[in-house]
Structures are given as C-alpha cells and as structure tokens.
Amino acid sequence: MNTHCTHHDLIIKDVRIFDGTGEEERRGDVAVKGDRISAIGSLERSSSAAVIEGGGLALAPGFIDVHTHDDAQVLSQDPMASKITQGVTTVIVGNCGISLAPLQPDGPVPAPLNVIGDESIYQYPKFSDYIASLQSAPPAVNVAPLVGHSTLRVGAMDSLDRPATDKELDKMGACLQEALDAGAIGLSTGLYYPPARHAPATEVLQLLKLMAGTGGIYTTHMRNEDDHVEESLRESFETAASAGVPLVVSHHKCMGHKNHGLSTQTLKMFDEVRRHQTVGLDAYPYIAGSSSLLPEMVEQSTRVLVTWSQPYPEFNGWDLERIAEVLNCTIDETIERLVPAGAIYFCMSEDDVRRIITYPYTMIGSDGIPYGAHPHPRLWGTFPRVLGRYARDLELMPLETAVHKMTGLAASTFGLKDRGRIVEGAFADIVLFDADRIADTATYEEPIRPANGIELVLVNGLIALDHGTMLEACAGHVVLREK
Ligand SMILES: [Zn+2]
C-alpha cells in the first residue's frame, strides 16, 4: 500500500485489480509514471496529471500473446489493431520454426515460411539487422523474438529433404549464436512441416546445446500432433532435457477424430515430466487450427476453409469441398491448384480444447496469422474469448486464473522481466476491461472484428486504445533475453 504524496502521470481509480499472479482480485487504484507502474492501493492523497475513473472495471497486466506469427507485422508500423483491441501488449514472434531472420532468400520461400509473408519481406541476413530495424521504428506492442529452425535450414541447406550435414549444422549454429548474441529469447522448431520434417532430434539437440545455461527457451510445433502425439511429446521432452534448456510445447492439441480425448493422457505426461524438467505449453481457444494449405492437414480435418490462395484469390473464405466442386477436381488436385495457399482446419474436439486450456500450466497463444484476406478468428478473438466464453460464461476457471495464463505465467515462462504483473516498478502494460461484457466477436465467417469490453490499453505507460479508439502510440519495446 503506497499512500504517500507522490506526483504521477496517470491514476486509474477504483478498479478490480487482477495482478497477474493468479491471486484473488482486490479493489484499489493504480498509478503510472513514465513507462512504469508507480503506485498501487488507495491513492486519494496522490496527485496526478490525469485521472481515469475506473468505475469498478477490471484492471490487469497487458496480455502476452506467447504464440504469434507477427514477425513482419511488427515491422510495418502497423497499429496492430488485432492485438491492441484484445488487450494484448506483448507478442512473442518467430514461432513454429518460422522467423523472418536470419534469411535473405534468392527465390520464393517454401511453405510454411510464407505464413508471415512472401520472399520480398525476408531481407535480414543477420538477426541483429532485424532487431535494429524493430528498434528504429518502435512497434505498437512489445516484441520478444525467437529464432526459427526452419528459417536457419532454408538459409544453410540447398535441399531440405534430409538431415543437415556437419558443415550445414555448423553454419546454422553460427547463425543461431549470432541471433542469441543479438538478444533472441530462444529457438523454435516446426518439425511437422516439410522444411524441418527430415531433421532428426539430434540436429535440434546440437543447436539447443548452444543455449544451455543462457536462459534461452526451446519452443516446438512438434513433429506430430495427431496419431503420434505422445511419441512427439516424448521426443520434445527428451531433446530439451538432453540440452538442459526449458521447453514450451506450442499450441498443444490432439488432432484427428480418432485422437480426440487423448489430452487426458498427454496432460498426465506434462504432470509427470514437470516433476524434474521445466516444461510449459500454450493453446488457443478454438477447435480449428490454421496454417499453409497442406494435404496431410486436410486429411485430419472434418472441414477445411481456404484463407488465401495466390492463384485463386476469388476462393478466399470458401470451403475446400465447394471449391473442388466448382473446379470439378478431386480434393488433392484442388489443393495442387490452389497453392501457395493457407487454410483453416477443423480438427480438434471441444472437450480437449477445454481440458488443455484449463490445465494449470497452459498459457494462451493466439497463433494468429496476420497474412491473408480471410484469417482464422483467433487473430482478433483469442484473449477475450478465453475471458468471456471459457472463464465467465462456461465457468471453467476463475477470472484470476484466466488472467494469470495470459500474463504472469507467460512472463515467468519466457523470462520477460518486469512484465505480466501489476506491481510497483513493473512496466505499465495495462488493460482495463469490463468483465461482464468482454467477448470475442470474430467468427469463421467474419473473422476481422474487434472484441467487446476492452476499455483502455496502455503500452509502456502510453495509451494505445481508449474506449474503442486506436491512438497508434507505437510505444512497444523490443524485449531481449537478459544476459
Ligand atoms: Zn505451429
């Protein structure tokens, strides 16, 4: 409780404080000075340049989207409305093995590197160039970057359908080291995808060893999330343990009809491994995933929606089956004609989604893809959907717990210093929301729609959203690994 006379830049009065730790909410005022939280408690005697009457709204740390593909978006001085309107103030980029740097390709990049954009945006041969570019034009949200293993492979190898040779591995290692020295927070893999599918666990291990003892984290879109999900979990656990690095399993799911329900088993595996290893996971609150258009993903899905197609933009937002009828082709032929393309895949069960989202160590990551005309609704809806639908309406968890998953838990897992908590001295990343009204409005049919109930968003002490109006503060920091 801080009640002495201090001058603040802003006081937000009379709010329900959800401090990000998962502890029970408390009522009070929160003050901001510069880019930090300067006081919390009953602040009637403090003076301030500005006062906002909170009127009993909920105040929480700005949400941390631990799983994004915003690598290019954050460079463009885009106001990042899809994030800010959800209350997201920090994004982790470079997931699923895909990062914008270090790579400067000669021609088109292979799928799924094209989920963040085409070859024209891959123009950073060194990771430090990418970071310098981010720093020279501050983004709308804070950005913590991972290095992508597939990006390293594309840069070091002339063919991707085999393990890397020792020489190629040396080159990838040198690029990873440069990125880590520049402040990258860790390495991501996408072993499911064609560019990394032929990389054995030993290749990943060699790279991860460079991070041992540095605090660098390993995140993985595993080799398999359907029929061999348990085997892939074991591989991920073992690789991270052998290297001595913390692990995050990305967008955990059990894909394909015959694997529905398997999360009861997989979550037990997390319980067990967590007794002796630092392992976390993230998830998004939807039964459909989204990525490049790939035949093997289509096979595991009951319905597929095309999000974008380079040769056939007229089919954006259409069902794949309907496109096949119109083109008078088989599904396989249709896919061949549509690529390069992206898709939404209905491949999970609601029970698994609920079980995984409510698991105590699951963080929230949207996996939103800002590229394409008809994105998955998770891009605009993830965080309000967890708070509104899953915590409040379905009563699957207390609001404190839901907030913790998207703030304190995320910051501690990824080592984001002074973020994810409402505490004196922390960065003033703050979201003010109406707990009764908060809801996602983005749907599969109409995916680009801002959520309801987000009243105010501060990024590093500056107002980015005020009652529905974007202020384009561009106050984001580049969050680098503590050395
Ligand atoms: Zn992924």
TrEMBL record:
Superkingdom to which the source organism belongs: Bacteria
Annotated ranges, domain Amidohydrolase: 52-277, 351-461
InterPro entries on file: Amidohydro_3, D-aminoacylase_insert_dom_sf, Metal-dep_hydrolase_composite, Metal_Hydrolase, Metallo-dep_Hydrolases_sf
Pfam families listed in its UniProt record: Amidohydro_3
Protein's name in the database: Amidohydrolase family protein
